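Lecture 7, part B: from sequences to assemblies.

Below are the input chains for today's worked example.
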Amino acid sequence: MPELTVGQAINNALSRILKEYPNSFIAGEDIGIYGGAFGVTEGLLKTFGEERIKDTPIAEDAIAGLAVGAAMTDSKPIVEMQFSDFIVNAMDPIVNQAAKLHFMYGGAVNVPIVVRGASGAGTGAAAQHSQSLESWFCHVPGLKVVTPSNPQNAYDLLLHSFVDPNPVIFMEHKLIYKIKDNVVLNDIPSSSELLGKANIESKGNDITIVSYSNMVNVVKDAISSDELSGISIELIDLQTLSPMDMETVITSVSKTKKLLVCQEAPANSSVGSTVISNVVQSSTFSSLSSAPKLISGLHSPMPSAKHLETTVIPQKEDIVKVIKDMV
Amino acid sequence: MALIKDTQLELHRMMMLIRLFEEALEEMFSRGLLHGTMHLSIGQEATAAGACLALDKKDLITSTHRGHGHCLGKGAEPYKMFAELLGREDGYCRGRGGSMHIADLSNGNLGANGIVAGSLTISVGAALSFQLQKKENIVLCFFGDGAVNEGSFHEALNLASLWNLPVLFLCENNQYGMSMASEKAVAGESIASRGKSYGIESIQIDGNDVEAVYESVSTCKDEILSNKRPKFIEAVTYRYRGHSKSDRNLYRTSEEINFWKDEKDPIKRYIGKLLEQGITEVDLKKIDEEVKQTIRTSVKKALDSSLSPITNLEEDSYA
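Predicted structure of the full complex, as structure tokens:
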């Protein structure tokens, strides 16, 4: 079992896909000789050649659009949005085309594409290179949205996203790329059963914390704090945001009677607000012993300066404080 | 090069089929039978017929919101198209797409697209598949003059040229993007010159001359396959009807519309040419009657067919 960073785990998954699926290819900006802005595609050009590791011009609309056309004609594209913020330039092919063609054409076509992108803040990259736009895509029927948080689920979720017959938006938080852990290099599955399944990171009875992407790691850090010793916390990593595994969340909340959701993205119309909305609309509502809470990023563009950036993003201390208040 | 008689008659038949199909839709619309709007290509039949008939079944097309002609040209069944517009289960998209989104993959139609320029990059992706799969086919991408000012038009042309993709960009310049005259919307020399600026060999043709369209697309297809380079055709044409059903034609004169109807109509012109070349009125009448009959029986069958059942539409959103 090799010890890999998230970046290396994704690289391994990509390599495996390219090896086993001759109709697969990768396209994106600087993914070839440069190895990707975050090094994720390093070495793939050398192994698989220019025909399948396609360095593109800076043209996100074309990158996503060509993936749609290729997927409709028996290719299996994985494309990269260098920073997921740039996906805004590719909204038409993703939202109007990829998400809708299967439905709109009466089921006659599938659009199995994976659009990977580096998301999130914490690197001082400021407002146009730090966003967490995942909830935009959760709003669109026809898309699946996946957010890994560690090397193992990054590896597995990418393979499952690849074999899924639908377009998948795969958001890789920049701060997880360097996280290192042992990774079981599972085979490429025959179906995408992992998508839509949350992972219970730790079991507990006093409070349910739901999170996803890098915020899972921040919550884990908070939970290990001495201040919270004696509190039994159940931490759920959603992993897939659309479709969302509400069953796991509701089962957990029925047990703990308390719900806290932690996310980096702003709260308005977000993943966290959907989780809470679903819980309060469920029969579990009556078992809640206090109002559910959402810790989110501020409703502000991401500032560049470190002290301002940490003001916008929820910090470990914020989470510890709210847990103490709630329990 | 003179076309053989069978091809000529087929071009005429296809233009008649497209026109009568759309006239039947207009009639159904006026009787309140159709839900929604539609974009008619009446007056533009030569581009769809000429281009599609020059392709093989395995060549692909991508189409536009004004796509009935492309779809028929590529071999779609009128019955299934009427059924689609009527929301029937037998429709190409089972009532989920309607006029603007008919796809017919069995005949190589990757689908009509409601987003102006929405199919440009899709055609590039499909052409990339052909290249990777080493297939000797092309993708013909239909789009209108309105599409050439969208960013994705430029991204698509750039990429197709850089990667030597087997795609034929065919601009149906009907001279208006909804109400916007292309002369007020397109900077530079011409639409065709935009193809050239990306290093793509580009020509401008009379889009209402069905044989000119047929021969240009045939030649382009051969050259795309032998030279491994994309091509670009600007076919100048004209739509008689409004952009959609709500159009009051405030942006153009009736003189202008009548000029195109009287002097440039693709069907009328072609009939004149065929008669000059010795094809008889009897030959043409026979075709026209067959087409009329096809339309009549297709409409009736579609009206008699079952509505698309209300299934779990949320589940239908995913493959």
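Note for the exam: The beta strands of chain B are 60-63, 109-112, 139-144, 167-173, 176-177, 180-181, 201-206, 231-236. Keep this in mind when comparing with the next example.
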